[in-house]
Amino acid sequence: MKGLTKKYLDDLTYEIIDSCIEVHKELGPGLLESIYHKCLKKELGIRRIAFTSELSIPVFYKGDTIDADLKCDLFIENTIVLELKAVDRMLPLYEAQLLTYMKLLEVPKGILINFNVNNIFHDGQKTLINNYFRLIPD
């Protein structure tokens, strides 16, 4: 990740969360995750933020590639994993899943968004970092 800085990641994180807030303002809570996903892809495109949707995540085990059929919702700028939910309650499992995706993709940051809340900024988002983040210059 040559040329990557913490400031760049923080600015990108802000734009991603702001994009999610914009989608939430337009739609409100209570819809299916797939609808928020489609609308968020449109919003990211409007903002010219590069992403891959439903990226297949490779799993390597003892020298072999395992067909695990893992997919992250959105992979932003090849640096941030974005996982979307539309659930009544966030579970620790969702954070564990995101951290594992970050590890397998070797990226420093992940964002978990729950659209089924009244206010995404206060109640519906969590940003996670890992050891890769600590290695990135400010």
Search tags:
alpha+beta, 138 residues, five-stranded mixed beta sheet, 5 strands
- SS-based structural class? alpha+beta
**What is the count of structural domains?**
1
Which radius of gyration do the C-alpha atoms yield? Answer: 15 Å
What percentage of amino acids are in beta strands? Answer: 25-35%
Q: Sketch the major β-sheet.
A: 5 strands, mixed
How many helices in DSSP terms? 5
Fraction in helix? 40-55%
DSSP, total strands: 5
Mean of the pLDDT scores? 95
Q: Give the terminus-to-terminus CA distance.
A: 13 Å
Strand order of the largest sheet: 1-2-3-4-5
What is the overall silhouette? globular
Low-confidence stretches: none
Element-by-element helix/strand order: HHEEEHEHEH
Summary of the model, kept short:
By secondary structure, this protein is of the alpha+beta class.
Word description of this protein:
This protein is an alpha+beta fold and 138 residues long. It has one domain. Helices cover 42% and strands 30% of the residues. It has a five-stranded mixed β-sheet, with helices on both faces. A hairpin with a 3-residue loop joins strand 2 and strand 3. Helix 1 packs across helix 2. The longest helix is centred in the first third of the chain and has 22 residues. The radius of gyration is 15 Å and the shape is globular. The two termini are 13 Å apart. The relative contact order is 0.20. The model has no long low-confidence stretch (mean pLDDT 95).
